[in-house]
Each structure stands twice: as structure tokens, then as C-alpha cells.
Amino acid sequence: MEDISKIIGRRIRGFRKQKKLSQEALAEKCDLHPTYIGQLERGEKNPTVESVMEIAVGLGIPIEQLFSNISCCEQENANYIPDRISWLLSDLQPNEQQVIYDLILTALRLRG
User: Where does the record place the HTH cro/C1-type domain (predicted)?
Assistant: First the structure.
């Protein structure tokens, strides 16, 4: 099973990029160190509950968005397509993410 710290880190990075925040800007909003934000995003550190809450507030998202659809079962998690897509998108710029999102919407409309 993929390390939950890596999943949460990818989600933090994705939301941060979506909000067009640098690691430094997010760290300032959360009263955390930018290096710590980077370590969390790379899955190198396990965040505390307090840190996760501060980051969610800094990102302006409900805390549950950072944990949604994380499975405790290795088989389910490995095949959960939204997480696989999220992983692929996490390193893209927000405008590139938007293009992929628009393509997905177009594909959904074409399916009938």
C-alpha cells in the first residue's frame, strides 16, 4: 500500500498549485516553515493532525478533502483511478491541470 504521507503530500501540493500559492506563501498562511511544507509534499515527513488542520485552513479547503477516498486496503488503493489521476496531475502547472480537466469533461459528454 502506498504510504499515506505520500498521498496526503500529493494532495497538499495539488491544492497549493490550484490556489497558485508557493510553498513559502502557504507556509506563511499556516505559520509553518516552508521546508516543512516541502517535506510534507514529498512524503518525507508525517504531518501532525494540527499541521494538517492548519494547512487545510491555509488552503481554504475542508480537511476531509485531504483524506477523501484513501483506502486502508492495498488492492483497492492501487486501483483507485481518481488517486492515480491525481498522482499524474500533481506535478503539472494549474493551467495544464485545467486542460486535462476540460478533456475529461469533453470525454464524459461524448460517452452518450
Answer: 12-66
